[in-house]
Every structure is written in C-alpha cells, then in structure tokens.
Amino acid sequence: MNNNNNKDNLINQQEICLELIKKLKEGIIEKYENKEVDKDYLMEMMFQLKEQHSKLEQLVEDQHWRPIKEMIEKINQSNYKLESFKYEKIMLESEINDLRQLQFDLSNPSLGITPLEKFLSFQSPQFIESFNSKPKEKQSIERLEWEIYQRKLKLNELENLKKLKIKLKQNDEKANNELKQFEDKLKENLNIKKAVEPFQKFIGILPVSKNNNSNISNSSGSSSSNNNIGNHPLLLESPQPLYILYHELVYFKEFFFNENFTVDLIKDNENDTTISNNNNKINEDTMNMDNNNNNNNNNNNCNNNKSTNLISPSKVYISLKIKKNEKNLSIDFYYYPNLKIVTVLPSLDGDFEMGQKLLESLDNSDTGLMTPNLSNHFIFESFGKDLFKLDEHNLKGRPYKWVQFITGLSFLPEITPENMKDKSFQLHDFQPKTSHKILFEIINSL
Fold first, then answer.
1. Of 82, 90, 223, 392, whose CB count within 10 A is highest?
2. How many CB atoms sit inside 10 A of residue 233's CB?
3. 47 pLDDT higher than 50
C-alpha cells in the first residue's frame, strides 16, 4: 500500500514538473512571437521549475535511493558476518584437528589427576564393573567429573577453614580484650602492700629443713650421697650466694647434663672460722686500736689480724666435677663473706694453671685478676692497708665477674670510654650471662 502511494506521489510530481515546463515553453514562445519579453515572468517561472525539480529529486531520493542504500548496507554487514563465520569455522576446524591429534593422558603427573587405581579404590564394586565396560573416552570424562567434585569439596573445606580462622581470631581478640579489662580491674583493686604482708616474715629465710642438718662431712670427704634438690644437709649452713649457685648447678644437671656432672657441698673444718667470729674479732681489734692509738706496733698487729680475718672464706664450699672427652674438670666455688665475692678454683686433669686458662678463654675481658667489688679497696684502706690486690692475698681461686652474677651478687658493670661517648648507652641495658649459658660454654670448651 505504501509503495503504491509513493509511486502515485512520484507520478504527480513528475506531471507537475511537465506542466510547468510546457507552460514555461508556451509563455516564452507567445512572448517571443509578440516580441514581448517579460524578464520577471521568466524568472518566476524558472524558480517554480527549480523548486519543483528539487522536490522531485528529494522524492526520488526518499522513495528509491534511500531504501536501495539501506539494502546495500545490510548486504555489506551480512557479508562481513559471513566472512567472520568463515574465519571462525576455519579456526574451529584447525582446533578440532589439533585436538584429534592430541594424546590426552590422565596419568600425566603435571595434571595432578588421581591415579586410576586410587580412583577405583574409592568406588563401589558395581561402579567399577560399570566403569570398566565403558569406552576409554567416557571413562576419562567420569574421572574428570569426579576430580572436579573432589576439588569442589576441598574448596568448601578451605572456605570453612577460612571462616573458622576468622572466628578464632575474633574470639582471640575478644579474650585479649577481656583479659586486658581484667588486668586493669585487678590493678585498680589490688593492694600490693596488703597482699605481700603475710609473706614478709619469710623473706630472707632459705627453704631448707633443719631436720636435714644431721650428716655433715668433714674436710677429708664430701657429704652423704643424698644430693636431691633442697635436701642436702649442708644447705642450712651455706651462705646465700652458694645456696643459689648450688641449686642452679643441680637444676642444670637434672635437665641438661645428667651424666658425668657431679655437684656437691663440702665443709672445710680447717677453715672453721665463721662469719660472726670474724666480725667479732674485727670489732675487738678495732677497740684495741682505739685504746692503743699511740702504739704503732699494736696498730700494725691489729691491722694484720683484721686483714687476715677479712680474707677468710666460709666453711662450706661447692665442688663441681665434669667429665667429657676423657678430660676431668674440677671447679670449687668459695664465698668470702666480708669481701662479698665468690671465687672460682678450677683444675683441668689436676693442673690448676690449665683450669684457669680454660676459664679465661670464656671472656678475654674477664680474667678474674681484679675484684669486682670496689668496696674491698675502701675496707682495706680503712685498716691502713694499700688497695686490695688479689695477687697479694692467698685467695682460693679468682673472683670472675660471671660467677658473681649467677650467685646473686650484683655489681655495676664496667663503663669503658667508648660507653661514655655513646649517648645511647644505658646501664640497665647490661645483661649478664645466665648460669646455663656459662656452664654450656665451659662444657663445650673441653
């Protein structure tokens, strides 16, 4: 219907244009015969003719050329799609040919596929019978489907583990917050002074029983064989530094070096002068010195007695014996109560000099040739003596710095010129070696 209307419109426009042309031609001929030429009339007719011609061209464009162009465009698009389909067809045919030539082996380790034997071990006998009756292609497909299912299960398990991890982390944070709140409340409500009052009366008392003080050895031998922790009969008579060291050594023996490691407490009756007697003699000598201030000889004798009493060790000492690599190391630990230092007397296979060299090798800066307690110099000066020098006194062993720390005696560390120049140096940064580290170094040096 639309095509007929378009055709009628085109015919009408063509007839209008023909009528105008005829009219223009007749008018020109008539004017020319009458020798009357009207230029305005001619111009008006020319404009009308041009206008009708434009309408005719537009009508032809709309009714004929535009549909033709649209059809050409559609044909071009169809041709382009057709070429694309041809290219895809060629590529697919090439891939199909490649796949036909490809040997797909499920037993290839790089694929990570479960071996056939293991796959069949998860299946029922009915499934295995049905599986074996199928072509290899279908068997491969079933195996791959089973692999996909198993990996989905693993994926779900992993997701559950991730959720559990998040939940545990949240619970941990919640517990830490509750613990922090509890600590804050505890700090606010806890009266430390009131809490330690019941224990203050026990401070300074060594945890040993007087009932254990029954069998004490003499200088010719050691104590009884009962060497359990806290049950040695000489612990009650031991000074606190040796008491601490004895337990350190026994614990080390129990946990790290049970064999070829012997610890014992020994009482030396030849040195039976106790700390209290030493102090009494010093006080008596001091009174005599004051009463005989004008007598130089008495003063000298008094000073000699005082210095002798000062360097008397306690009557109980520790004996440590270590055997390793056919070597026998013996170390005795003595405590000097007035000097407040612990000395170490080592012997390697009976040679005291070799024993001292072994201990010197632990730390080149700690040879034990100087007293770590600087107050010793002041004590000797107050008795009219020179500065305290280890080589002038018959001390048993050397007061190494490391043994002072592991026996509970605390002295300030040496401050070198380099430390003074270092602005970041702090005394509290000093960390002495532990007894375990010292003992391991001694054992490893054998």
1. 223
2. 20
3. yes
